Structure formats: structure tokens, C-alpha cells
Amino acid sequence: MNKLLKSAGVGAAAMLLGLTAACGSGPNKSDQSASAASSGSAGSAAQASAPANGGKKIKLKFYDFHTEAEEKFFKSLVDEYNRTQDRVEIEYSTFNQGDYTTTKLPTAFASGEGPDIYMISPGDFMKFAKSGLMADLSPYFPEGAKEDFLPASLDAVTVDNKIMALPFELELLGLYYNEDMLKEANVAVPKTWDELYAAAKTLTKGKVAGLVLPPDKGPYFNFIWYPFLWQQGGSVLSEDGTKSAFNSPETAKALDFWGRFFREGLSPKKLQAGPWEIDHLGKKEAAMQIVGTWAINRAEEVFKDVPINVAPLPIPEGGQAATDAGGWKFAVNGKSANVEEAAKFVMWAFAGDPQRALKWCTEVKFAYSPRQSVVEAGKDIYSKGMRKVFTDEIYNSAIPEPRYPSEVLDVVGDAMQQVMYGKYDGAKAAAAADPLINDALQKASK
Amino acid sequence: MTSRKTGSRARSEWLTAYGLLLPNMIGLLVFVFLPIAYAFYVSLFDWNALTPKSFAGWANYRELFGDAQWWQSVRRTLLFSVVYVPLLFMLSLLSALLLHAIRGRASGIVRTMFLMPFAITSIISAIIGMFMLDPRFGIVNALLERLGGGAQPFLASTSQALFSIIGVILWINIGYNMIIFLSAMKEIPADYYEAAAIDGARGFRAFWHITLPLLKETSTFILIVTTIGSFQSLDQILVMTQGGPMNSTEVSVLYIFKQAFELLNMGYASALSFVLFLIIFVLSLFQLRLLSSKK
């Protein structure tokens, strides 16, 4: 009855909001239960033992949002794991990314039907961690595995000395550019903010944008902007994360720099493809674009005839190199009845055999593994083409994407838009946002 | 004997009528009224959907009264409604009149053309609309430039975005409302127009004195349904602007969506939903009374 009421509640919100269309999507193509075959095949972490509950397998739900090749990878990962188990079966479901964190995960948890294993982004991390929906994974790391992870990547998922999720990818940002367009305009690859601005101005011609930046509010919008703040030593929050540090000259400068591209028409305020797609450069609709490591494979495979290259993000006068290291994390539901079994799968997938992590980071997509042994194992791949620039010139300046509460992201996004649309200058926007961030922190801590 | 027969027939009719209505009434109860009541219940709690609810009394309602962003979104919704509803009504009626006048195969072709945007999923229509209004590569700006006008930012402008969205939603919905008007027009007996013509009433006078009064029921239906619909617009706005730029298209339902599913303030979002429900309810009652009182 209680479950029914809870479900009705979630339904009520959806009904009243008239959200049928937005919430209606079911599992994306697959709601597959990978069939368990016999436990004959070898698996490094296979802890096969006789079924304890009367021959019935423990079923674990795994929610994901990936599609295409990435979905296929996770499906095969689940299949492989299931084949090595005779008392556990993982059921893999993947959903549209737009619905995944906004409706699917919250409604599943609210109705008591949440997954045992799920993917979580830095933007939602704290909310789920504080709600007891992330189990402490510290005890489940295989021996020596914890030391293999970059300390900063584990710090980004540690709360009260507990490792609440497993990082499995680091996606770094770089400045991608069309070599021919720069050459034709006699523009050198920009290294400083002033050079980036001057280059964008020269390269903006007709319908070709000088520089593509994300124009719409959302976590990705902030994600791309943070490096400009960090390059000057600025920060959104104080070091202990309890109050705003937004009202600073560094913020004002980073906001003004960002806003100028849009106000002067060097960056489009509306894009047809997502700002994370390299297609803007690939289709020669832009000369430069700030985007992440994930774009390399597409640039090489789909747009191989376009001379796309990458450089580190330009820095301000006297600033230091900094880039954002984003990436989703694997979490285990702290309220699951089978935390241990779920954690074992997560560890098997990305803290065990380096080959699985390497396949994910180099074949399925291009990202850095937070594990040093994986980067070492893939040395050859990490020094191929544009990857070499990331490995040699960008990797060391990576700062993990901050896990600010959604309320804080919203206020920062508002400040960025206020400068983009000329409502305020950077200093005024930073000053206006400062108390709102403190309010948001207070609200989020409730 | 006869009265007993009549009584039993009335009882049987009553049973048949309510028997047929029962599944619908159960559906309404389970999927509409119970959730509304439960949403009100949730609105009295502080709840993020991930942890147990904690009772907050009227705190969510007190908070919404001081929430400037919410009231701004309500004002934006009212503006949307005030522009959208009359335009949709007039353009649908005008299209129906024109189509009513067209005879032969051309009528079917034009009707299909008008209905096409509505026949596609609203999300797809919104994406098509967004592409058409793209400042750099959109067909609308290409046409404007060809006609000697300047390119417009449309969805990328804080002053144009809401009106651009209205334009796209009109483009999607005109066909459907036009078909409703057209069906009602076809029900009007031709004799009325012939009689009016003998008395010298043609064209606009015939429309004003015959067509419009006889379309009253249909007009009431369309006005009420589109007003309610205008307060609930979400999916197309979410696709086209996500409430931007600078929150200039953040209508009430979008603000509620953000509170509920981005910030996970389920209790607060339920309170906002309940207030919006009351606003729509009162407006619809007022509209219904106003339209049905005019004889």
C-alpha cells in the first residue's frame, strides 16, 4: 500500500505538471536481462558459489543512460559478468539521457524501486550521497587498486572519508580548431585569452563562427566555463565548500571574458547541434570550439577530411593552465539489500583487469582512465594524433569537475547568462550571485 | 402496468449509462483525482524524493508567495496565454473559413498541409520549428534576407524568444483546431445562408450573424481547451529554449519542472502545481461562465 501511495505521489507530480511527454520514455531500446549462462567461462573476479536462496539468483538492477557503442559495451560487460556468476544476475537498463537524472532515477528511488547500481554525474553527486543512496565502496576495492587511482579522482567522490562512487573516466577539455581556417586567416593557435579573442574575431566570417561555446544554461554550460575561473585561481565556493567565494575579481574577469564572445557575435547564441558535438568544426560551421576528449573519435572517423587539431585552453596573462576533468561515476545504492554483490560488480568492471577500463577509454570512446596502470597500458594509444596533445600538454592541468549542488549550478548559470546578454558586467553579476549561492547552499544542506 | 414498465426501462437506461461511464470514472479517480489529492498532501512536506518526507505544514505555500521567480513565470505564462489563445482562435477560424470555401481535391490537400505539423510528435515539430528559426542557418532568416530584411535572433533573444515559441506552437496547433471549426461549419444548414442571401446578407454579414453564433459551442470548447493548454505548455519550450535565454521563456510549468526534477524539491513543486491548478481551474470556470452567459 505504501509503495502504491508512493507511486501515486510520483504520478501525481507528473500528472499535475502535464509532463506526459517529458516523462514518458521507457527504457531506451534495451531493457535487457542478460541471460545467465553456465559459469564455465573464466572471469578474474568471478566469485562463483552455490545459490544461497533456494537456487534463485540475486537480481541486481543496473541503470544507465549510454547509447549506441557505449550501450553495447555495458551490455557486453554485464553479459560477461553474468556468465561468471551463478548466484548473481545483473539486469541492465538504459534510458534517454535527458530523462535519466531528471525523472528516471528520482522517481525510481521515490517509489522504492531504485536500481542497485547506477551512473551518477558530479552535478547530482551530493544530493544522492547525502540521501544515503550511495554505499561506501572503500571496503570493496581489490588489493592495491585504490593506490592505482589518481588521488584527485578519488577525492572528488569522497565524503566523510568514504569513497561513495567509482570514477571510471576523466574527460578533459581542449581548444579544437580547424587548421586550414587558421592558416588561411594567418592566425596562430591561440595560447592566451587575448589571442583567443583576437583569433575568434578574425575567424568569424559570415555564417562561420569564430568560437563555439555552449550557449544554454545547464551543467555543461558551467563545466566549460570553470577553467577560465580556475586559471586565475578563482573558485565558486570557499575551500571547505560551506560558503560562496564567487564575488571576486577572478570571477568578474572570467564572466566578462565569457560574455564578450556572445555579445560581440563571435560565438553563436543558438546552436543546431549540441555544444558537445564536434560537428560544428566537422561541418566547417566554426573555426574553433572548446570541447572534450570524447570528440576525438568522431573527429577522426566522421570528419577525417577536415583538418581538426587540438591545443590546451588559452590562459590569461599571469594565469596558470587549468582544464576541467569531467566524467560519470559508478554508484551502488546504499539502500540496496545487496550492496556487497553490487559493489563487487562495479569493482570487477573498472577496478579490476585494466583491459576493460582501457577498452572503455580508448576503443569505445576517448577519455583518460583515473587509473595510472590503465594509462600506462594504453601508452601507445594515448600518444596517437590529438591524444598526444591531451597526454603531454593538458592532462597535468586537469581539475576534477566540482560536485556543486544543482541550486548552486543554477545561480552560476544565471550569472553567466546575465553577462552574455549584457544585463550586468562580470563584477555586478558576481556580486548579485554571491548571496544567492549562500542561500542555495543553505537550501541544499537541508 | 405501463408506469412499472417505464420505471424499469428508466432503471435499465440508468444502469446502462452509468455502467458505460464507470470505467471512465474509475480511470479519472485513479489517474486524476487521487494524484491531485496526493500532490496536495505532498505539498505539505519537505521532500526531495530520495529521503523520507518531513512535514512542513504550509511552509511551501508561504515560500511561493515570496518567490519572485515563480511570480515572474506566472506573468510570463499569462502573457503567453493572452497572445497565444486569441491568435490560435482567430487563425484557426480564418483557416477553416478559407478551407470551407475551397471545393474539390484542393481542399483535401490544403487540409492535410495544415494538419501535418500536428500529426508529427510535438517534440519533432518543436525541433523542426527550432531549425527553421535558427539565426544562422534557419529558413526564416534566409527568407527575410532574400526579402531584404535583416536576420533575426529569434530563440536566441530575450525579447523575441517567447513570441518565437508562440509562433511555432501556433504552427503546430492551428491545423487541429481548424478541423474542429471546419466540422462545426459543415453542420450549419445551407438553407440559413440561402435565406440570408435572399435578405441581402452575404460575406462578412452572413459570417457575423450566422456562422459565428452557430459556432458558439465549438468556440467555447476551443477557447477553454487552448487556455488550459497554454498554461500547461512545457515540452516544446523545453526542447526549444529550456526556459532561456536568461529565463525569458521560463513559464510556470517549466519552473515547476525545474523545481521538481532538476532541484528535486518535490514538496515545493507540488505546492506550485497545486496553485497553478487552482489558477487554471478558476480561469476556466470564469471563462465558461462568461461564454455561456452570452446568449
SSE order and pairing:
The complex is a heterodimer of chains A (446) and B (295).
Chain A: H1 2-17, H2 20-23, E1 31-33, E2 58-64, H3 68-83, E3 88-94, H4 97-110, E4 117-120, H5 122-130, H6 145-148, H7 151-155, E5 158-159, E6 162-163, E7 166-167, E8 171-178, H8 179-184, H9 193-203, E9 209-212, H10 219-230, H11 249-263, H12 279-282, E10 286-292, H13 295-301, E11 308-311, E12 323-326, E13 329-332, H14 339-350, H15 354-364, H16 372-377, H17 379-382, H18 386-394, E14 398-400, H19 406-420, H20 426-444
Parallel strand pairs in A: 2-3, 2-4, 9-10, 12-14
Antiparallel strand pairs in A: 1-3, 4-13, 5-6, 7-13, 8-10, 8-11, 8-12
Helix pairs in contact in A: 10-11, 11-19, 11-20, 19-20
Chain B: H1 2-42, E1 45-46, E2 54-55, H2 59-65, H3 68-101, H4 105-119, H5 122-132, H6 139-146, H7 161-187, H8 190-198, H9 203-214, H10 216-231, H11 235-240, H12 252-262, H13 266-293
Antiparallel strand pairs in B: 1-2
